[in-house]
Amino acid sequence: MTTTTDFTAEGSKVELKAGAFTLLKLCMPELDTDAIDGLLCERIAKAPDFFRNTPIVIDLTQSEVEMADSDLAVAVGAIRGYGLIPVGVRGGSKAFQEQARLLELAVFSDNRRSAKKESTKRPRAPSSSMPVATKVVDTPVRSGQRVYAQGDLVLLAPVSSGAEVVANGSIHAYTSIRGRVMAGVRGDEQAAIFCKDLRAELVSIAGRYKVSEDLEARFMGRLVRVTLLGDALVFKKL
């Protein structure tokens, strides 16, 4: 289960809780509307149901280009035109982030940039965190349900189409997966996915993903290991 923090007032029926969600990111070195059109047109043609009404974050953490005031508004309009819902931005200049606020978009922190600044101030202290226990799920994960593990995740029961299984570490599925399977969601590029019967709608490791239409037929319904090599997902039959 996702760890939550409860901010509920005593006696109130309204709850305010912190939760973990997986968001799609549109990563680019600059706001290029033509490039956005080309990418989204291609991907949505392959999997229209997957992208419909999907929240997305515009990620410019790799950008060093100054943009005009109108650029973000044009990009947001283009993204909405494809049925996606821009919910926030990450990275970019202060002026870019101010544009985002004016458009009522959330501004997500750039953790990598913050970590880099922190590392120049003082040496990193030894980690005192305890290893996270592996989460084991032995009941079916049905359509609309979501399972999240802070470490590795072991699945002993089927994952239905429309369901989502997510882990910070690796995922081991001794069963069939028909929904979305996402490992290394906090950026662990060493994470892997092992699946006895791969029929997933989406496969992702550390943010790199493939939808079912992009998966080679020879891997579907087979015992498969998925790893990340550079920016590419590597599938291997076992």
UniProtKB/TrEMBL annotation:
Q: What is the lineage of its organism?
A: Bacteria, Pseudomonadati, Pseudomonadota, Gammaproteobacteria, Chromatiales
Function as written in the Swiss-Prot or TrEMBL entry: Cell division inhibitor that blocks the formation of polar Z ring septums. Rapidly oscillates between the poles of the cell to destabilize FtsZ filaments that have formed before they mature into polar Z rings. Prevents FtsZ polymerization.
Q: Where are the transmembrane segments?
A: none
Quaternary structure per UniProt? Interacts with MinD and FtsZ.
Family, per the entry?
Belongs to the MinC family.
> Which residues belong to any copy of the Septum formation inhibitor MinC N-terminal domain?
14-86
> InterPro entries from the xrefs?
CAP/MinC_C (IPR016098), MinC (IPR013033), MinC_C_sf (IPR036145), MinC_N (IPR007874), Septum_form_inhib_MinC_C (IPR005526)
The record's keywords, sorted A to Z, are: Cell cycle, Cell division, Septation
Determine if Ubl conjugation is one of this entry's keywords: no
Q: What is this protein called?
A: Probable septum site-determining protein MinC
